[in-house]
Amino acid sequence: TGRLHVVATPIGNLEDLSPRALRTLREADLIAAEDTRHTQALLSAFGVRGTLVSLHDHNEAEQIDGLLAKLRDGAQIALVSDAGTPLVSDPGFRLVRAAREAGIEVSPVPGACAAIAALSVAGLPSDRFAFEGFLPQKGAARRERLQSLAAEARTLVFYESSHRIDECLVDAAAIFGATRRGVVARELTKRFETVLDGPLGALAARVAADADQRRGEFVVIVEGATGDDADASLALGRRVHALLREHLP
Ligand code: SAM
């Protein structure tokens, strides 16, 4: 019977491709990839000759029917993204949902995930955490999102690109407070891997001062609000509310 295998690939270091992931890719009738050229390079590095089909956010809906038909015919299809675990800030959820609804088996082949890798070395509480993915790109929307998270007690995990890592840290320090602890995990598993930790204010200053610290791919982790933060933010909320009431009819 057909099966959809959701296969994690490395986030930088090719040695992180698991033996099972390699076998699954080798045995798949079809590999649905976010970017076929990117995945072709991965397959070539391992000497795998696979048949690739592209599946990204913009064609996922159109591709689903064809892929489901093949799965119903008994195909073994592997789903991969450019890096890490598919569906984690990556395409695939529509296909997985459609496959499940069609009664097709969906199996994970787990492996690298930047968020989890970063969390595992951050040294921040990880018993409960909230994965927030990418923040909005525009400043006002980003600050609004951060504001909505200011009282969140769980550790917060964000993905960020080199274009906005500096603004992200400046905003996070302003909104969560400069003394709230954070971790900036850059280029994990790659040559220039760096994990910086400290108060958000210091992290923002450090990254602003060093262009090298703005290159590559980032996971930003922020400690959750403690009771003090929550009290402070509640007090602030009350003050804003009181001020607004004075000015409202
Ligand atoms: N599906 C992937 C995963 O499992 O981590 C994430 C895909 S998302 C489109 C790409 C983002 O993940 C990057 O912008 C960066 O925030 C983060 N990322 C990916 N690889 C990374 C690495 N080696 N080091 C730090 N962050 C990374």
TrEMBL record:
Its EC number is 2.1.1.198. It comes from the Bacteria. The keyword Transmembrane helix does not apply. GO terms for cellular component: cytoplasm. Pfam families: RsmI_C, TP_methylase. The keyword Methyltransferase applies. Residues 3-203 form the Tetrapyrrole methylase domain. Keywords: Cytoplasm, Methyltransferase, rRNA processing, S-adenosyl-L-methionine, Transferase. It is found in: Cytoplasm. Catalyzes the 2'-O-methylation of the ribose of cytidine 1402 (C1402) in 16S rRNA. This is Ribosomal RNA small subunit methyltransferase I.
